[in-house]
Each structure stands twice: as structure tokens, then as C-alpha cells.
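WARN no homologs supplied; continuing
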Amino acid sequence: MVHTYYFSASNTTEKIVKAVADNLGQEVLHHNLTPSRIARIVNPAKDDIVIFAAPVYAGRIPVVSPANRGTHIISAFSQKNNNI
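OK structure emitted
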């Protein structure tokens, strides 16, 4: 199984990561990490493929929120889900 974990404020990253994952020929489970759209997150199994995707603005991955200043979306996710 393929798991995608992505942040996509304008839906462009979402379209790209879905196109890539959907063409791998395996079952795919998409996880939207955009703060306003976070749904249930399923942790991958040991042998699953994991794809992280986030936009890059001026050479930087977006921060999660003002409360987490300096923490980008993938780092914040991995801190909360340390088994990935």
C-alpha cells in the first residue's frame, strides 16, 4: 500500500502527489495534512510506501501555524507520529 501525507493550501501539491501515487499500481491512501482539512490519519505498516509532499515557497516548506513558529509541516507531523 502507498500512503501519501501532504500539505496543500492551494491544491496544487495535492494534485501532483495524487497523480504520482495513483500511477504506482498499488492501493493508495491519501492523508491531507493541511490544518483546515486534516481528517483521520492512518499510520503505514512497516512495508508500505510513504510519500511526503509539501509546496516550497521561496525555498522553504510552510510552517504549520504561528504557534509552531519555525516548525514545518512534515517535521510537526513526524514529531506527533514518531513510529513513522
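Helices lie at 12-22, 73-80.
OK
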